[in-house]
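Why show two proteins at once? Because comparison is the fastest way to build intuition. When a single record is shown, students tend to memorize it. When two are placed side by side, the eye starts asking what differs. So, the first record is below.
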Amino acid sequence: MAKLVSGLTLVLLLLVAGCSSQNEPTQSDADVSGTITEVNEQDNQILIEQDNPDDPAMKQIWISQDEDSEIVIGGSAESKFANSIINKKAEVWIKNLIAQSSPPQALAEKVIIE
């Protein structure tokens, strides 16, 4: 009986650990990483200058948000971007494709700002 209980406990722990880490963005796999150089409060967008873009055309990118985007500023959840975040570091996970405009544009799944 003790082996059964400990076996079930182990299985439960593995299931919980597996479910909690699935599909959650981590800082190590951000799609965009850099410094916020401009905020468009009217359209709720930020312009990020990337630290080390793979493509020089991606040096700057506009990031937009929608009602499902998660925004974390200084460790607190926020609903919109404000001018106070200019010159702050940001990491962004992109929802879909990046529009090949100049500069490129993308919709954020999650944004973490220092």
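Second record. Ask yourself what differs from the first in the token line.
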Amino acid sequence: MASQQEQLEAWSGRLLRALELEGTPVEVSAVLDLAAAAAHSVVRPAAPLTTFIAGYAAGMAAGSGQADDAVAMRSAMAVAASECAGAAAEKGGME
């Protein structure tokens, strides 16, 4: 039986092929880390929303030529992670 990581890698590959994005590097663990940060620092449903918006921002940056794919994704994920940290700090101050 395949591990969870292997299943996620396979699923990622399947989606990339279906969306005609084969060969696009996806750091599954980084995406999951961002989703976890959003879920824990905001609210649980923020996880898919945050990863979607970060991916969209990265796609826009790469598509407009502002950055190559890898730089665009790292930058968008870093901004999103920073916002999650800020939300967690705000949430911590409210308790």
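One difference worth noting in the second protein: The radius of gyration is 15 Å.
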